[in-house]
Amino acid sequence: MNTKNPNIAIKAENITKVFGDFTAVNQISFEVKKGEIFGFLGANGAGKTTTMRMFCGLSVPSSGTATVAGFDVYKETEKIKKSIGYMSQKFSLYGNLTVKENLDFFGGIYGISRRELKTKSVELLQKLNLEEEKNKLVSELPLGWKQKLAFSVAIFHQPQIVFLDEPTGGVDPVTRRQFWNMIYDASDQGITVFVTTHYMDEAEYCDRVSIMVDGKIAALDTPANLKKQFSSKNMDDVFYELARGAKRSAD
């Protein structure tokens, strides 16, 4: 099922995910534009990763409709997987393989030809300043290098959309900023970036942000508009105000 609007990368309508008696994602609806950096913010347990897994074809929604890269999340999951890149918060490379072996392995999975893979690998190693470390096991690299390499591999095949699940968790502020520069570069190449994070300051780096509270979208807009709406100077205050409002409604 192809989306009618070619400028929309992701479209969700009342998407819900239920585990037994627990509703992890509760009837959320939104669109992500092509080439956009879309932040999916919220505290741990807010439903961010569950939503992302549904969009990646790794989990079937309980109800609602959604398309990713124009493909239906129920019927066309294999087409979705070929159109996206994915980087999990738990790191998505093989630590017992070298840097080069990881590039060769994932290049093969993505269907990159040997000639193109050789060229792209050289370019990537140069860009990340990892030429001298190409024969090192990935497990031996510092965390920041691992994260940047994992992101580079996630977009190795130039996907339409890349999903990043808490990509900067545990890294220092300087590395976080370097990582976001890589995200900007990917967006400039036309790749749509869907990123989950619980770091509220990272909302400032996104074109638009959706803030999840208890499985629901509590707010969705540009960072500037959200701060204006809540008369706030930073996204932390916006989030806490939304969380307090959700708690009062529940009570």
Structure description:
With 251 residues, this protein is α/β, with parallel strands linked by helices. The protein has a single domain (8-92, 160-250), classed as P-loop containing nucleotide triphosphate hydrolases (Rossmann fold), CATH 3.40.50.300. Helices cover 36% and strands 25% of the residues. It has eight helices and ten strands. The protein has a six-stranded mixed β-sheet, with helices on both faces. Strand 9 and strand 10 (216-221) form a beta hairpin. The longest helix has 16 residues, at 173-188. The chain is globular. InterPro entries: AAA+_ATPase, ABC_transporter-like_ATP-bd, P-loop_NTPase. It comes from Kaistella montana. Keywords: ATP-binding, Nucleotide-binding.
Question: In short, what is this structure?
Answer:
The chain is an alpha/beta fold and 251 residues long. It is 36% helix and 25% strand.
Which features characterize this protein?
6-stranded mixed beta sheet; ABC_transporter-like_ATP-bd; P-loop_NTPase
The mean pLDDT is 90
* CA radius of gyration: 18 Å
Shape from CA axes? globular
How would you classify the helix and strand content by structural class?
alpha/beta
Helix fraction?
Answer: 25-40%
* Spatial order of strands in the largest sheet: 6-7-8-3-9-10
Tally of distinct domains:
1
User: What is the fourth-level CATH superfamily?
Assistant: P-loop containing nucleotide triphosphate hydrolases
Please tally the helical runs, counting DSSP H or I stretches of 4 or more residues: 8
Q: Which CATH class is shown?
A: Alpha Beta
Contiguous low-pLDDT stretches (5 residues minimum) are none
CATH topology: Rossmann fold
Q: Give the strand tally.
A: 10
Tell me about the largest β-sheet.
Answer: 6 strands, mixed
- Strand % is 25-35%
